[in-house]
Amino acid sequence: MKLVGTTAIVTGGSKGIGYTVADYLMAHGADVAITARNQGELSSAAAILTDRHVGRRAIPIVADVSKSADVERLFDTTEAELGPVAIVVNNAGNSTLDTIVNLPEEDWDSVISTHLKGTFLGTKAAVMRMKASATAGVVINTGSVETFGTTRGNAHYTAAKAGIDKFTEVAALEAGRHGIRVNTVAPGVIQTPMAESVTTPEFKAAWHRSFAIDRMGEPADIAKAVVFLASDYSSWITGTTILVDGGTHLRGLPDYVDYLMPGTE
Q1: I need a surface site. Which of 100, 103, 125, 137 has the fewest CB within 10 A?
Q2: pLDDT for res 137
């Protein structure tokens, strides 16, 4: 299995899924630019990754993926330091929990901007740069199992992730004639710092009951799917969503209000 190129960008790359995706891409021969908003966490992550993968580089670039100027600077810097970008993983994300009637407008705007607008800006920049350099590259967007199941308490996140799925389909149609593939990886519940911050023992038990494969997901499960989509092994796959959820979609999601916001209606 060979990656489609040796320069990658991973947004939200300082920890969790993004960090592990960068780790796996480097293990398969890529230099990677990782982005996040926290300079300290980002620099530390890049240093660890570079030390771990001899001969490969991880560079930290602070950026807000919802701002076009930041995204353009991200690509400019990556190209200047690592070369033409062949792999882009739009992974940056955030979330809060609340029912629609209690959801602050600013929380809606923040989640939609980070996930959906960030994916749009990252994909737009990637396709434009890949076309200009005649690079048959790959864009991989991070979706969610929540596109395939419904729970109370997460309308903004679910709406953003469902939007990413349809956006990916359109992007794949438009970019395909230039040899550029666009796909989505949709994680189920993954043991990350963000997930652990809201998880309770009861909620974990409810998730376990939803699995066909009886274990929590790990960031490496997602990273392996990303590497596959970024490789020649998936050369005729585009415009699709790969669910990596342990089978959760077969049984349905546990209700967030019941387990994480009891008494909220």
Answers
A1: 100
A2: 98
